[in-house]
Amino acid sequence: MVTAIITVFVIGYLAIAFEYQLHINKAAAALLTGTICWSLYALNVTLLAPTPPAWFVEFCQAQRIDPTKLHYLVDGQLLHVTAEIAQILFFLMGAMTIVELVDAHEGFALITDRIQTKSVRKLLWITTWLSFFFSAVLDNLTTTIVMVSLMRKLVSEKELRRLLIGAIVVAANAGGAWTVIGDVTTTMLWIKNKVGTIEVMKVIFLPSVVCLLVPLIGMSYVIRGSLGERPTSHHSIDKNIAAWHQKLFLALGLLGLLFVPIFKTITHLPPFMGMMLSLSVLWFVSEITSKTMDEATRSSTGVLWVLKRIDMSSILFFLGILLAVGSLASIGILADFAAYLDATVGNRSIVAIIIGLVSAIVDNVPLVAAGIEMYEMPMNDPFWLLLAYCAGTGGSCLIIGSAAGVAAMGLENISFIWYLRKIGPWALLGYVAGIAVYFLQTSFFGLG
Prior knowledge:
The chain is mainly alpha-helical. It is built from 24 helices and no strands. Helix 6 (69-104) runs parallel beside helix 9.
């Protein structure tokens, strides 16, 4: 039955990869894959589910519930996975709403109007380095959402815009890897006391820079020419936005996104709580400032109008693919794979590199979680630092391998095969180059 579940996952993965050839929306394929995987698991729970742990048995006894494997599957695994997925989805919806709210008030025009270059290469370098450093402070997912919105305002030609967004995905993942708040896997290692804040920045920064710089130099020879006319506004209603409205909502939007990691550090609550707080503040301000607008402008800038523009198919795609990966993790397939790598390969540096590459296929979170549980090395061991880099940047090799890539895939309708041909080879080259720099640091400077 494990073989059947893996087969369903592979078929679903291929359906997502060949979305445009099959003419089936990737959200439908992801949802079908996730629900079937869990259903097969539930129908064979006595064979597949592990023995319920002591904490679950004690919980059931306190609730006077029989601690069967089926109860553990539902209450101990599925609800836990769903809770983790819900955090990601709420975070994504909050970030998307904030970005759309700033966009509705034409706040991003204050930035795009200052990028006057007509050179595609200059725009490539400007946007990728902005993404690199934004991602380190915010996170790769939020950064990608913001930058996709900016690209839509700067670039009208679809193919060119997708190339730039593909480079932004690579930049956002590279930038998120070298801080403990920039990428969820680095955050996991930090929370579990495997890496320190300063050590990650000191050791991973230069490999992350090279991870972006190498594909950036290569893509500079592919992306040529000059920009045409900027896209016209996609709003269907003429709006009379005052300059102070633009400045206010741009400032509040950026500060709200920057506030999320600060909120998490102070309160230790999940990041989606900070995102919801930021969204509620912008919503509150929007309700107040709407009284200063005419009726047409008010109706096209309010949060209720903005919510209608949120791409729910992307949200459902996230839900389906994370459910599917969660089923593999719950059955123990991913943990077994990590153990197999450790036993077969032996060299843990190579294990970390392989985990990074595998994270381009399946979610890096359960892979890193499995690695954390497998090894007992001390804090800031070279393995943990290399794993932080590999898990954070390896997902760039495929568009489905990172939250940033999945967001770009949904927002810009980038196909799996297109990204594999146009961006994947450059991302892989940067990934390998960054690893080489990591080992050079270790050999010559004792870093790592």
